[in-house]
Recover the amino acids of this structure.
């Protein structure tokens, strides 16, 4: 019903910034929630930030004050602005969406932070 594609990943030095985008496509009327998860090498996939349609954004403690999630509902797109990046932010970042009773994942985009 909905397909998610992330973009904006890459290689950046510690202290730098990146902006991730996730565009949703398919047949749907509205998205109830969009979120970002990440999985570092050898680690489980953890929540980074989420933005419910009828709520306010929330963040993992590890990224508070550095990352900002935002949505452009007209474009069915969610963004993740990442500032003051640290090597421990290195991971594959995944877009996640809840559309009605359906849940969808993007394929992920690699973010690598060097020191």
């Amino acid at each position: 019903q909905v397909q998610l594609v992330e973009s904006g990943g890459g290689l950046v030095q510690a202290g730098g910034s990146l902006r991730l985008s996730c565009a949703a496509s398919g047949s749907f009327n509205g998205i109830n929630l969009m979120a970002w998860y990440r999985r570092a090498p050898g680690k489980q996939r953890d929540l980074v930030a989420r933005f419910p349609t009828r709520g306010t954004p929330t963040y993992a403690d590890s990224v508070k004050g550095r990352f900002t999630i935002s949505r452009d509902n007209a474009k069915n797109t969610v963004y993740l602005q990442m500032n003051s990046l640290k090597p421990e932010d290195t991971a594959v970042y995944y877009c996640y969406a809840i559309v009605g009773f359906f849940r969808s994942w993007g394929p992920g985009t690699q973010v690598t932070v060097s020191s």
